[in-house]
Specification:
two-stranded antiparallel ribbon; 21 helices; mainly alpha
Length: 493
Protein backbone atom coordinates (compact mmCIF):
# COMPACT_ATOMS: atom_id res chain seq x y z
CA UNK A 1 0.00 0.00 0.00
CA UNK A 2 1.51 3.28 -1.08
CA UNK A 3 1.48 6.00 1.52
CA UNK A 4 3.42 8.79 -0.20
CA UNK A 5 4.79 7.38 -3.47
CA UNK A 6 5.75 9.91 -6.13
CA UNK A 7 4.95 12.84 -3.85
CA UNK A 8 7.82 11.94 -1.56
CA UNK A 9 10.23 12.18 -4.49
CA UNK A 10 8.88 15.63 -5.43
CA UNK A 11 9.16 16.82 -1.82
CA UNK A 12 12.74 15.55 -1.46
CA UNK A 13 13.78 17.20 -4.73
CA UNK A 14 12.39 20.58 -3.70
CA UNK A 15 13.87 20.27 -0.20
CA UNK A 16 17.28 19.56 -1.74
CA UNK A 17 16.87 22.58 -3.99
CA UNK A 18 16.12 24.81 -1.02
CA UNK A 19 19.13 23.52 0.89
CA UNK A 20 21.73 23.32 -1.88
CA UNK A 21 20.85 25.75 -4.66
CA UNK A 22 18.77 28.53 -3.09
CA UNK A 23 21.91 30.48 -2.17
CA UNK A 24 22.85 30.70 -5.87
CA UNK A 25 19.41 30.66 -7.50
CA UNK A 26 17.10 32.75 -5.36
CA UNK A 27 13.85 33.99 -6.85
CA UNK A 28 13.46 36.42 -3.96
CA UNK A 29 16.84 38.01 -4.64
CA UNK A 30 16.16 38.17 -8.38
CA UNK A 31 12.83 39.91 -7.81
CA UNK A 32 14.45 42.87 -6.03
CA UNK A 33 17.80 43.01 -7.85
CA UNK A 34 18.27 45.04 -11.04
CA UNK A 35 14.55 45.86 -11.10
CA UNK A 36 14.29 48.65 -8.55
CA UNK A 37 16.05 52.00 -8.19
CA UNK A 38 16.95 53.37 -4.77
CA UNK A 39 18.31 56.77 -3.78
CA UNK A 40 21.67 57.39 -2.13
CA UNK A 41 22.01 59.73 0.79
CA UNK A 42 24.37 62.71 0.27
CA UNK A 43 27.81 62.48 1.83
CA UNK A 44 29.20 65.02 4.28
CA UNK A 45 31.46 66.49 1.61
CA UNK A 46 28.55 67.02 -0.77
CA UNK A 47 26.44 68.67 1.93
CA UNK A 48 29.29 70.97 2.94
CA UNK A 49 29.91 71.95 -0.66
CA UNK A 50 26.26 72.68 -1.44
CA UNK A 51 25.55 74.42 1.89
CA UNK A 52 28.84 76.34 1.87
CA UNK A 53 29.91 74.96 5.23
CA UNK A 54 33.58 75.57 5.98
CA UNK A 55 35.62 72.47 6.75
CA UNK A 56 37.34 73.46 9.99
CA UNK A 57 39.39 70.26 10.16
CA UNK A 58 41.40 71.40 7.14
CA UNK A 59 41.83 75.00 8.26
CA UNK A 60 43.30 74.03 11.60
CA UNK A 61 46.81 72.71 11.39
CA UNK A 62 46.61 70.43 14.41
CA UNK A 63 48.32 67.09 14.69
CA UNK A 64 47.80 63.76 16.35
CA UNK A 65 45.01 63.28 18.83
CA UNK A 66 43.78 66.92 18.72
CA UNK A 67 43.21 66.75 15.00
CA UNK A 68 41.29 63.49 15.31
CA UNK A 69 39.09 65.06 18.00
CA UNK A 70 38.35 68.02 15.76
CA UNK A 71 37.27 65.69 12.94
CA UNK A 72 34.83 63.95 15.29
CA UNK A 73 33.42 67.34 16.31
CA UNK A 74 33.03 68.36 12.68
CA UNK A 75 31.31 65.08 11.66
CA UNK A 76 27.95 66.59 12.63
CA UNK A 77 26.92 70.00 11.36
CA UNK A 78 23.77 71.88 10.42
CA UNK A 79 22.56 72.63 6.89
CA UNK A 80 19.53 74.64 5.72
CA UNK A 81 16.36 72.60 5.20
CA UNK A 82 15.69 74.36 1.90
CA UNK A 83 18.93 73.02 0.46
CA UNK A 84 18.71 72.74 -3.31
CA UNK A 85 20.11 69.33 -4.18
CA UNK A 86 19.17 66.23 -6.11
CA UNK A 87 19.66 62.73 -4.78
CA UNK A 88 21.76 60.29 -6.75
CA UNK A 89 20.03 57.06 -7.74
CA UNK A 90 21.36 53.57 -8.32
CA UNK A 91 19.95 50.22 -9.36
CA UNK A 92 19.55 47.80 -6.47
CA UNK A 93 22.41 45.30 -6.48
CA UNK A 94 22.20 41.81 -4.93
CA UNK A 95 25.06 42.54 -2.53
CA UNK A 96 23.16 45.52 -1.13
CA UNK A 97 20.21 43.38 -0.06
CA UNK A 98 22.11 41.43 2.60
CA UNK A 99 22.38 44.47 4.86
CA UNK A 100 18.64 45.15 4.85
CA UNK A 101 16.49 44.37 7.84
CA UNK A 102 14.40 41.17 7.54
CA UNK A 103 16.13 40.18 4.30
CA UNK A 104 16.76 36.61 5.53
CA UNK A 105 13.10 36.19 6.46
CA UNK A 106 12.00 37.63 3.13
CA UNK A 107 14.27 35.38 1.08
CA UNK A 108 13.29 32.24 2.94
CA UNK A 109 9.57 32.98 2.83
CA UNK A 110 9.42 33.73 -0.89
CA UNK A 111 11.77 30.95 -2.01
CA UNK A 112 9.95 28.40 0.13
CA UNK A 113 6.60 29.65 -1.19
CA UNK A 114 7.73 29.31 -4.81
CA UNK A 115 8.79 25.72 -4.11
CA UNK A 116 5.47 25.09 -2.36
CA UNK A 117 3.53 26.39 -5.38
CA UNK A 118 5.54 24.10 -7.65
CA UNK A 119 4.94 21.09 -5.38
CA UNK A 120 1.24 21.91 -5.14
CA UNK A 121 0.56 22.10 -8.87
CA UNK A 122 2.71 19.07 -9.70
CA UNK A 123 0.78 17.15 -7.04
CA UNK A 124 -2.51 18.40 -8.46
CA UNK A 125 -1.46 17.20 -11.91
CA UNK A 126 -0.43 13.85 -10.44
CA UNK A 127 -3.79 13.44 -8.70
CA UNK A 128 -5.65 14.45 -11.86
CA UNK A 129 -3.84 11.93 -14.08
CA UNK A 130 -3.55 8.94 -11.74
CA UNK A 131 -6.15 9.68 -9.03
CA UNK A 132 -4.49 7.71 -6.19
CA UNK A 133 -6.85 6.87 -3.37
CA UNK A 134 -4.40 5.57 -0.78
CA UNK A 135 -1.84 8.38 -0.64
CA UNK A 136 -1.54 11.30 1.73
CA UNK A 137 -1.43 14.61 -0.09
CA UNK A 138 1.93 16.08 0.93
CA UNK A 139 1.21 19.40 -0.77
CA UNK A 140 -1.14 20.12 2.12
CA UNK A 141 1.85 20.04 4.48
CA UNK A 142 3.71 22.56 2.28
CA UNK A 143 0.68 24.87 2.33
CA UNK A 144 0.39 24.67 6.11
CA UNK A 145 4.09 25.49 6.49
CA UNK A 146 3.80 28.56 4.24
CA UNK A 147 0.81 29.78 6.24
CA UNK A 148 2.76 29.28 9.47
CA UNK A 149 5.80 31.15 8.11
CA UNK A 150 3.60 34.00 6.86
CA UNK A 151 1.91 34.39 10.24
CA UNK A 152 5.29 34.33 11.99
CA UNK A 153 6.63 37.04 9.68
CA UNK A 154 3.54 39.19 10.22
CA UNK A 155 3.92 38.77 13.95
CA UNK A 156 7.61 39.77 13.81
CA UNK A 157 6.91 42.83 11.67
CA UNK A 158 4.02 43.88 13.92
CA UNK A 159 6.28 43.45 16.95
CA UNK A 160 8.47 46.25 15.55
CA UNK A 161 5.67 48.70 16.33
CA UNK A 162 5.66 47.55 19.96
CA UNK A 163 9.39 48.10 20.50
CA UNK A 164 10.69 51.48 21.53
CA UNK A 165 9.39 54.18 23.79
CA UNK A 166 8.04 56.29 20.92
CA UNK A 167 5.74 53.59 19.53
CA UNK A 168 2.77 54.30 21.78
CA UNK A 169 0.53 55.37 18.90
CA UNK A 170 1.37 52.29 16.83
CA UNK A 171 0.74 49.96 19.75
CA UNK A 172 -2.61 51.58 20.47
CA UNK A 173 -3.63 51.37 16.82
CA UNK A 174 -2.79 47.64 16.61
CA UNK A 175 -4.68 46.86 19.79
CA UNK A 176 -7.71 48.90 18.72
CA UNK A 177 -7.71 47.24 15.30
CA UNK A 178 -7.51 43.79 16.87
CA UNK A 179 -10.45 44.50 19.18
CA UNK A 180 -12.47 46.09 16.38
CA UNK A 181 -12.04 43.14 14.02
CA UNK A 182 -12.71 40.70 16.87
CA UNK A 183 -16.09 42.34 17.49
CA UNK A 184 -16.75 42.56 13.74
CA UNK A 185 -15.97 38.85 13.37
CA UNK A 186 -18.45 37.98 16.12
CA UNK A 187 -21.12 39.94 14.26
CA UNK A 188 -20.25 38.18 10.99
CA UNK A 189 -20.25 34.74 12.58
CA UNK A 190 -23.82 35.15 13.87
CA UNK A 191 -25.08 36.39 10.50
CA UNK A 192 -27.65 34.23 8.77
CA UNK A 193 -26.13 31.66 6.42
CA UNK A 194 -28.62 32.71 3.74
CA UNK A 195 -26.74 36.01 3.45
CA UNK A 196 -23.09 35.06 4.05
CA UNK A 197 -22.72 31.47 2.93
CA UNK A 198 -19.62 30.20 4.70
CA UNK A 199 -21.16 26.88 5.64
CA UNK A 200 -19.89 27.09 9.20
CA UNK A 201 -23.09 25.66 10.66
CA UNK A 202 -22.82 22.63 8.42
CA UNK A 203 -19.10 22.42 9.19
CA UNK A 204 -19.71 22.34 12.94
CA UNK A 205 -22.51 19.78 12.60
CA UNK A 206 -20.29 17.52 10.50
CA UNK A 207 -17.36 17.84 12.90
CA UNK A 208 -19.48 17.27 15.99
CA UNK A 209 -21.18 14.17 14.60
CA UNK A 210 -17.97 12.68 13.25
CA UNK A 211 -16.06 13.33 16.46
CA UNK A 212 -18.88 11.87 18.53
CA UNK A 213 -18.88 8.69 16.41
CA UNK A 214 -15.12 8.43 16.62
CA UNK A 215 -15.08 8.78 20.42
CA UNK A 216 -17.93 6.29 20.72
CA UNK A 217 -15.99 3.73 18.67
CA UNK A 218 -13.04 4.20 20.99
CA UNK A 219 -15.21 3.39 23.99
CA UNK A 220 -15.42 6.97 25.28
CA UNK A 221 -18.64 8.63 26.33
CA UNK A 222 -18.86 12.22 25.15
CA UNK A 223 -21.48 14.57 23.77
CA UNK A 224 -18.93 16.13 21.42
CA UNK A 225 -15.55 17.87 21.46
CA UNK A 226 -16.80 21.44 21.82
CA UNK A 227 -19.87 23.63 21.61
CA UNK A 228 -20.78 25.76 18.63
CA UNK A 229 -20.22 28.88 20.70
CA UNK A 230 -16.62 27.90 21.46
CA UNK A 231 -16.12 26.88 17.83
CA UNK A 232 -17.07 30.33 16.59
CA UNK A 233 -15.32 32.08 19.46
CA UNK A 234 -12.01 30.50 18.45
CA UNK A 235 -12.57 31.69 14.90
CA UNK A 236 -13.32 35.21 16.19
CA UNK A 237 -10.08 35.27 18.19
CA UNK A 238 -8.16 34.25 15.06
CA UNK A 239 -9.96 37.01 13.14
CA UNK A 240 -8.88 39.58 15.74
CA UNK A 241 -5.22 38.61 15.35
CA UNK A 242 -5.48 38.80 11.57
CA UNK A 243 -6.99 42.27 11.86
CA UNK A 244 -4.14 43.43 14.10
CA UNK A 245 -1.50 41.93 11.80
CA UNK A 246 -3.05 43.43 8.66
CA UNK A 247 -3.47 46.98 9.96
CA UNK A 248 -0.10 48.44 9.03
CA UNK A 249 0.31 46.31 5.85
CA UNK A 250 -3.04 47.71 4.72
CA UNK A 251 -2.02 51.27 5.52
CA UNK A 252 1.30 50.74 3.76
CA UNK A 253 -0.37 49.31 0.68
CA UNK A 254 -2.75 52.28 0.55
CA UNK A 255 0.18 54.72 0.59
CA UNK A 256 2.01 52.81 -2.15
CA UNK A 257 -1.16 52.65 -4.22
CA UNK A 258 -1.70 56.39 -3.91
CA UNK A 259 1.91 57.13 -4.87
CA UNK A 260 1.79 54.69 -7.80
CA UNK A 261 -1.16 56.54 -9.29
CA UNK A 262 0.86 59.78 -9.40
CA UNK A 263 3.47 58.15 -11.66
CA UNK A 264 1.02 56.98 -14.32
CA UNK A 265 -0.99 60.13 -15.03
CA UNK A 266 -0.31 59.74 -18.75
CA UNK A 267 -1.34 56.09 -18.93
CA UNK A 268 -5.06 55.47 -18.33
CA UNK A 269 -4.54 51.72 -18.80
CA UNK A 270 -2.03 51.52 -15.95
CA UNK A 271 -4.37 53.52 -13.75
CA UNK A 272 -7.19 51.11 -14.57
CA UNK A 273 -5.03 48.10 -13.66
CA UNK A 274 -3.97 49.71 -10.38
CA UNK A 275 -7.56 50.53 -9.45
CA UNK A 276 -8.59 46.98 -10.37
CA UNK A 277 -5.82 45.63 -8.15
CA UNK A 278 -7.00 47.77 -5.25
CA UNK A 279 -10.67 46.81 -5.60
CA UNK A 280 -10.14 43.12 -6.40
CA UNK A 281 -10.35 41.88 -2.75
CA UNK A 282 -13.79 43.49 -2.52
CA UNK A 283 -14.85 41.37 -5.50
CA UNK A 284 -13.72 38.27 -3.62
CA UNK A 285 -15.70 39.42 -0.59
CA UNK A 286 -18.87 39.75 -2.65
CA UNK A 287 -18.53 36.19 -3.98
CA UNK A 288 -19.52 34.86 -0.55
CA UNK A 289 -22.60 37.12 -0.31
CA UNK A 290 -25.33 34.74 -1.41
CA UNK A 291 -27.98 37.22 -2.64
CA UNK A 292 -25.38 39.08 -4.72
CA UNK A 293 -23.57 36.24 -6.52
CA UNK A 294 -24.83 32.70 -5.98
CA UNK A 295 -28.52 33.48 -6.41
CA UNK A 296 -27.91 35.30 -9.70
CA UNK A 297 -25.35 32.87 -11.10
CA UNK A 298 -26.59 29.45 -9.98
CA UNK A 299 -30.32 29.84 -9.18
CA UNK A 300 -31.76 32.46 -11.51
CA UNK A 301 -32.51 31.74 -15.16
CA UNK A 302 -31.91 34.77 -17.34
CA UNK A 303 -34.10 35.71 -20.35
CA UNK A 304 -33.08 33.82 -23.47
CA UNK A 305 -31.35 31.07 -21.47
CA UNK A 306 -32.72 27.63 -20.72
CA UNK A 307 -30.49 27.05 -17.69
CA UNK A 308 -28.48 28.95 -15.13
CA UNK A 309 -25.13 30.57 -15.91
CA UNK A 310 -23.16 28.25 -13.61
CA UNK A 311 -23.69 25.00 -11.80
CA UNK A 312 -22.96 25.02 -8.04
CA UNK A 313 -19.68 23.12 -8.55
CA UNK A 314 -18.53 25.57 -11.23
CA UNK A 315 -19.40 28.49 -8.98
CA UNK A 316 -17.35 27.05 -6.10
CA UNK A 317 -14.35 26.53 -8.38
CA UNK A 318 -14.79 30.03 -9.83
CA UNK A 319 -14.43 31.56 -6.37
CA UNK A 320 -11.13 29.75 -5.92
CA UNK A 321 -9.91 30.79 -9.37
CA UNK A 322 -10.82 34.44 -8.73
CA UNK A 323 -8.80 34.47 -5.51
CA UNK A 324 -5.78 33.00 -7.33
CA UNK A 325 -6.11 35.60 -10.13
CA UNK A 326 -6.28 38.44 -7.59
CA UNK A 327 -3.12 37.19 -5.87
CA UNK A 328 -1.28 36.81 -9.19
CA UNK A 329 -2.29 40.31 -10.27
CA UNK A 330 -0.99 41.89 -7.09
CA UNK A 331 2.19 39.86 -7.27
CA UNK A 332 2.84 41.09 -10.82
CA UNK A 333 2.34 44.70 -9.69
CA UNK A 334 4.60 44.31 -6.66
CA UNK A 335 7.73 45.88 -8.29
CA UNK A 336 5.72 48.97 -9.22
CA UNK A 337 4.42 49.36 -5.68
CA UNK A 338 7.87 48.85 -4.19
CA UNK A 339 9.35 51.43 -6.52
CA UNK A 340 6.72 53.92 -5.40
CA UNK A 341 7.87 53.25 -1.85
CA UNK A 342 11.53 53.88 -2.74
CA UNK A 343 10.49 57.14 -4.38
CA UNK A 344 9.56 58.44 -0.94
CA UNK A 345 13.16 59.59 -0.50
CA UNK A 346 13.01 62.50 -3.02
CA UNK A 347 9.43 63.21 -1.89
CA UNK A 348 10.54 63.69 1.70
CA UNK A 349 13.42 65.87 0.56
CA UNK A 350 10.99 68.01 -1.45
CA UNK A 351 8.73 68.46 1.60
CA UNK A 352 11.76 69.34 3.71
CA UNK A 353 12.61 72.22 1.37
CA UNK A 354 9.28 73.86 2.20
CA UNK A 355 10.19 74.08 5.88
CA UNK A 356 12.22 76.81 7.51
CA UNK A 357 15.23 76.30 9.72
CA UNK A 358 18.20 73.96 9.71
CA UNK A 359 18.69 70.22 10.08
CA UNK A 360 21.61 68.08 11.10
CA UNK A 361 23.49 66.32 8.32
CA UNK A 362 23.13 63.01 10.18
CA UNK A 363 19.36 63.41 10.44
CA UNK A 364 19.16 64.27 6.74
CA UNK A 365 21.25 61.26 5.75
CA UNK A 366 19.27 58.99 8.05
CA UNK A 367 15.98 60.22 6.57
CA UNK A 368 17.09 59.19 3.08
CA UNK A 369 18.89 55.96 3.98
CA UNK A 370 16.04 54.68 6.14
CA UNK A 371 13.80 54.29 3.09
CA UNK A 372 16.03 51.69 1.48
CA UNK A 373 16.93 50.04 4.79
CA UNK A 374 13.29 49.09 5.44
CA UNK A 375 12.66 47.82 1.89
CA UNK A 376 12.38 44.16 2.95
CA UNK A 377 10.05 45.08 5.82
CA UNK A 378 7.71 46.80 3.37
CA UNK A 379 8.06 43.88 0.95
CA UNK A 380 7.01 41.44 3.66
CA UNK A 381 4.05 43.64 4.57
CA UNK A 382 2.98 43.41 0.94
CA UNK A 383 3.89 39.77 0.35
CA UNK A 384 2.83 37.95 3.53
CA UNK A 385 -0.92 38.70 3.18
CA UNK A 386 -0.75 37.55 -0.45
CA UNK A 387 0.82 34.22 0.48
CA UNK A 388 -1.54 33.77 3.40
CA UNK A 389 -4.54 34.26 1.12
CA UNK A 390 -3.15 32.09 -1.69
CA UNK A 391 -2.26 29.04 0.37
CA UNK A 392 -5.44 29.22 2.43
CA UNK A 393 -7.27 29.03 -0.89
CA UNK A 394 -5.15 26.03 -1.90
CA UNK A 395 -6.15 24.27 1.32
CA UNK A 396 -9.78 25.13 0.64
CA UNK A 397 -9.55 23.56 -2.80
CA UNK A 398 -7.66 20.42 -1.80
CA UNK A 399 -9.18 19.58 1.57
CA UNK A 400 -12.63 20.72 0.46
CA UNK A 401 -12.34 18.30 -2.48
CA UNK A 402 -13.14 20.81 -5.18
CA UNK A 403 -12.11 20.06 -8.75
CA UNK A 404 -10.35 22.29 -11.27
CA UNK A 405 -12.00 20.23 -14.01
CA UNK A 406 -15.53 21.19 -12.99
CA UNK A 407 -15.58 23.63 -15.93
CA UNK A 408 -15.30 20.73 -18.39
CA UNK A 409 -16.73 17.72 -16.61
CA UNK A 410 -19.90 17.60 -14.50
CA UNK A 411 -19.24 17.05 -10.81
CA UNK A 412 -21.77 15.30 -8.61
CA UNK A 413 -22.73 17.12 -5.44
CA UNK A 414 -21.32 15.31 -2.41
CA UNK A 415 -22.17 17.70 0.38
CA UNK A 416 -24.55 15.29 2.13
CA UNK A 417 -22.21 12.32 1.93
CA UNK A 418 -19.78 13.69 4.46
CA UNK A 419 -22.34 13.43 7.24
CA UNK A 420 -23.01 9.73 6.82
CA UNK A 421 -19.61 8.27 6.05
CA UNK A 422 -19.08 5.03 7.94
CA UNK A 423 -16.56 5.08 10.70
CA UNK A 424 -13.40 3.02 10.38
CA UNK A 425 -12.45 0.89 13.31
CA UNK A 426 -9.35 -1.29 13.23
CA UNK A 427 -10.18 -4.95 13.81
CA UNK A 428 -8.21 -7.52 15.73
CA UNK A 429 -7.46 -9.48 12.57
CA UNK A 430 -6.01 -6.42 10.90
CA UNK A 431 -3.76 -5.65 13.83
CA UNK A 432 -2.61 -9.28 14.16
CA UNK A 433 -1.69 -9.43 10.50
CA UNK A 434 0.07 -6.10 10.80
CA UNK A 435 2.28 -7.47 13.60
CA UNK A 436 3.71 -10.13 11.29
CA UNK A 437 5.50 -7.63 9.14
CA UNK A 438 6.80 -4.44 10.72
CA UNK A 439 6.91 -2.38 7.54
CA UNK A 440 3.49 -3.50 6.38
CA UNK A 441 2.16 -3.07 9.90
CA UNK A 442 3.43 0.48 10.14
CA UNK A 443 1.90 1.30 6.77
CA UNK A 444 -1.45 -0.19 7.72
CA UNK A 445 -1.52 1.53 11.09
CA UNK A 446 -0.72 4.85 9.46
CA UNK A 447 -3.42 4.29 6.87
CA UNK A 448 -5.94 3.39 9.57
CA UNK A 449 -5.01 6.51 11.52
CA UNK A 450 -5.41 8.70 8.44
CA UNK A 451 -8.75 7.04 7.64
CA UNK A 452 -9.95 7.80 11.15
CA UNK A 453 -8.86 11.42 10.85
CA UNK A 454 -10.64 11.73 7.52
CA UNK A 455 -13.82 10.59 9.20
CA UNK A 456 -13.49 13.32 11.84
CA UNK A 457 -12.18 16.14 9.66
CA UNK A 458 -14.58 15.96 6.75
CA UNK A 459 -14.54 18.01 3.52
CA UNK A 460 -17.63 19.85 4.77
CA UNK A 461 -15.62 21.04 7.78
CA UNK A 462 -12.73 22.19 5.60
CA UNK A 463 -15.03 23.98 3.19
CA UNK A 464 -16.64 25.96 5.98
CA UNK A 465 -13.49 26.83 7.92
CA UNK A 466 -11.12 27.60 5.04
CA UNK A 467 -13.84 29.31 3.04
CA UNK A 468 -14.46 31.65 5.95
CA UNK A 469 -10.70 32.19 6.47
CA UNK A 470 -10.19 33.09 2.81
CA UNK A 471 -13.11 35.50 2.86
CA UNK A 472 -11.95 37.11 6.10
CA UNK A 473 -8.37 37.63 4.87
CA UNK A 474 -9.56 39.37 1.70
CA UNK A 475 -12.14 41.42 3.60
CA UNK A 476 -9.72 42.63 6.27
CA UNK A 477 -7.03 43.45 3.73
CA UNK A 478 -9.43 45.53 1.65
CA UNK A 479 -10.91 47.22 4.73
CA UNK A 480 -7.53 48.27 6.15
CA UNK A 481 -6.38 49.42 2.70
CA UNK A 482 -9.52 51.49 2.19
CA UNK A 483 -9.18 53.11 5.63
CA UNK A 484 -5.52 53.79 4.92
CA UNK A 485 -6.36 55.38 1.57
CA UNK A 486 -8.89 57.68 3.22
CA UNK A 487 -6.37 58.60 5.90
CA UNK A 488 -3.56 59.39 3.47
CA UNK A 489 -5.86 61.28 1.10
CA UNK A 490 -7.64 63.56 3.56
CA UNK A 491 -5.56 63.71 6.71
CA UNK A 492 -1.93 62.96 5.90
CA UNK A 493 -1.34 65.05 2.77
Amino acid sequence: MAVFGVQLVITMVMASFLQKLSSNFSFARWLLSYRLVHYLHPTNEELKTIAGVRDSSRSKGKKGRDRFTDQNKDSEFLVPKNLQMELDSAVVQPVELFQLQFYTEYQWLLDFSVCAVFVYFVTELYYFLLAPNDEVNLSVLWCILVIGFSLKVLFSVTALYFSGEEALGERSLCLMAGLFFFVAAMVVLITDENFLEFGLDAAYTSFNKSAYSFLENQGLNSSGPTSQLMFKLMLAVWCGFIGAFFTFPGFRFARMHQDSLTYCDKSPLQKLILHLSFLSPMLVTLLWVKPVCRDYLTHKTWPGMNETIMTPSVFETTRIVVVVVVVVLRFILMPRYLQSYLNLAPQKLGKLRKEAGRISNIDLQRMVARIFYYLCVVTLQYLAPLLLCLFTTFLLKTLGEYQWSSYFFPVLEREDQSFSTPSVKPTTETLSRADNDSILGTSQQFSLAMSSLKQVFTPVLYRGVFGFMTWWICTVWFTTSAIGLIYHSYFFN
